[in-house]
Amino acid sequence: MTESTLDTTRSARDGGPVSSARREEIGPGSVVGRHMVLHEIGAGGMGVVYAAYDPELDRKVALKLVLPGRGATGRVRLLREAQALARLSHPHVVAVHDVGTVGEQIWLAMELVEGRTLSDWLETKRQWRDALEVLRKAGAGLAAAHAVGLLHRDFKPTNVMVGDDDRVRVLDFGLARTHASEGSAHSDPPEPSEAPKSPLTTDLTRTGAVVGTPRYMAPEQLGAKELTAAADQFSFCVTLWEALYGQRPFAGSSTEAIIANVLAGRLRSPPKRHAVPGWLRRACERGLAADPEQRWPSMDALLDTLAKGRKRAGIRKGAAVVAVLALLGAAAEARRGWELSHQQAACDATATELDGVWSPAREQALRKALVATGVSFAPMTADKVTSWIDRQAAQWREARVEACLDANVRGRWDADTLDRSLWCLDARRTELESLVDELTRADVPVVHRAVAVASSLAPVAACLDPEVLETRPPPPPVDREALREIRADVLRAANLDRAGRSAQGLELAGKALARAEALAWPPLVTEARLQRGQLLERNGSYPEAAAELEQAYFDASRGVAPEVVFDAACRLVRTLGVNAAQHADGLHWARLAEVALEELHDGEQLRRASLLTNRATVHRLMGEYHEARREQEQALAILQDALGSEHLRVVATLVNLANVHAALRNDDEAAALLQRALTIQEQVLEPDNPDLSATLNNLAIVRSTTGDHEAAKRLLQRALAISEQALGSTHPSVATSLNNLADEHYAAGDYEEAKRLSERALSIWEQALGPEHPDVAASLINLANATRATGDGERAKLLHERALGILEAKLGPEHPHVAHPLASLAKIALDQHRPADALALAQRAVSIQEQSEAAARELAPTRFVLAQALWATPKDGGGDPARAVTLAEQARDALRAAGDAEVLPELEQWLADRSTSAPPP
Fold first, then answer.
1. Do domains 720-812 and 819-921 have the same CATH topology?
2. What is the pTM of this model?
3. Of 7, 14, 154, 390, which one is the catalytic site residue?
């Protein structure tokens, strides 16, 4: 039978029998609640619907009642529908007005819609654009339900009304059920004394183990599994496919055959002769994926894609109309229409240019590679990574089609703009391809960085912005294929770096630079040089990195590549101002980067955030904490606005801002920021991803600073366990936690344990980085301090001397880091009663820190060592007791202002003792 207005009919064509249960004696003239029944307008397996009159509000309503034969289950279902609809207020969802009981029945008064079901509406041949518009409105109703935590669970053409007023409404939320905050919902329990049945035999329109209509149900719904909004999305896409092509997406002459195809994900091919564009078919296919995780992230995401495509289709249609009116004669009009149609089809086809880069086969290979590493969280990582890549791939395909339309159909672009756009898109495609390649060759370290790498892909939107394209160098006039291959290697080197294979990336970048110089196309030469400079910095070769980056800056400044001008200057802020501790030079490059940024498009906000972050770090190292805080907060605001509040780049900035607050001794604020960063990481990554260990380490340091050493130990032990489980016992991340844990034991006076942990950390650093890396020197200093505390001063001296040699060779003799082993060697000299040696070492340490404009808090401990040396050294050997006391008092004041709880007690006691004792003669 044909379903009519507001009916929840379960007709045979929907897979459920019409009930034969007897109805209450309700008919025209009966009063239900305050409503007078006018006439019956529909009946089905669960109830009957009447037209009725509400005298209080003077309007007609649709009155729905449950048939008595359904008993308690039917009443519960109707109440659920009433509660679900009452929570919704949306133009594309049927409105519920009132609910009550009559005898054993429950009634529901709803908006009376005059019109046809979508099923009837589609019986009249419709253009795909019209069908899409109606389904978009129905989809908006579904999205509104999802927004308040409801699922429909039986979306299909007969549950959508197209009113005589042309308003579209979704109805019959009788299967709706509140789902949990994470978006899941269980199927209804079976009726009493009734065991759950197979989906092949169950009356699928009743409340029971499985509910819904099989031809429109998602695989997880057929299997009576937990449901999310993705199940409604699947049903919506089945309906959309049927509206577009006149047939459902899953073939089968029986319910069993249809279900088998649904579960296997076997889509039928669309009819050969149809006008539905490729982008629309692809959008629908994604929503029909067998795996809910592979569908659109939400109904809103799907509707956004449909809206953009619909807008594009409207532009095409308008262009066609204008073109037709401009032609004279029917033959010319027909010819133009044919050409326009083929141009549009050709543009749609360009989206397939990415198929070799990202396809179901490539996705399967990537998943297999990640899982094969054996990392516990690899399956979850695979889900998150493919989601990011899906997003990038969808944006690329859309941009490729739009570029073609702007140039060849809309006539907005000239040939030069199109060429620039395609060269830009080629770079984004190559970057994506190399990333997929690297992830498909995944090892254990790559797995833990995979999500961060996938989320860091360059945005595609710039490739569609003529103003941005105008600021970038035009594509090469000759040797384009050879240059494309070199650029692919440069982009691959960047992905190797992101994946933690910086040594391999450096080697590849060097080869790419040599090849680029041989072909002598300046934009690519500067790009390759920039990448090599960044990788040199990553590998700890700071002077060589600075030289390469400066060369890239000056080469690009000749109008060759404005974005490289900025990127090189911005990177030099970090290379010189942070890593090389040349703060003034870092701020100088920050000013040059600011100028370069003005030459770029206003939309380059992500670049501005990078500059703010680097400059803030320099200010923090200089002790200019309030300036550093202001800039980090600006960077955070930009990133949250551009990327959302849960992007991993936001996490990094939260950690940076926390470091500033820690320096200001705003420990509560620092801890709150780090906790927020940790929470985001646990959601965006995985709970046991080793990237969490860095945040845990930072949070532990804050807890330690406040004196909560037990909390610090717990955090560090968690960080250590995560890193060891995910990366193995010899990874540098493990060494970081070991070093920090050693510091906690040192602070607690457990020097032997601190020494053991430091020795293990040193072994890891030496194996991972080589014996001459600056990070090895830091580990040597930690071990030497613990060794000195155990009474082995001579071995401590040798360890500090080795660290000093590494730092002087790698960073230069005046680098601030050199002051640390010098001060420690001075302490050992005092222990060994060599005050003259201690004085020389301490004086050099203080001089280095003062020249580098170190903050008073950082300078204070070194000044205290110098004060001790000045006091212990005879006057004829350079001793100066008065200066010693002055330096100690300066250090005391600085540590008091900073709230120091470690060095300050010893310093205050030393000053107290000096007030009652005489210095050496």
1. yes
2. 0.59
3. 154
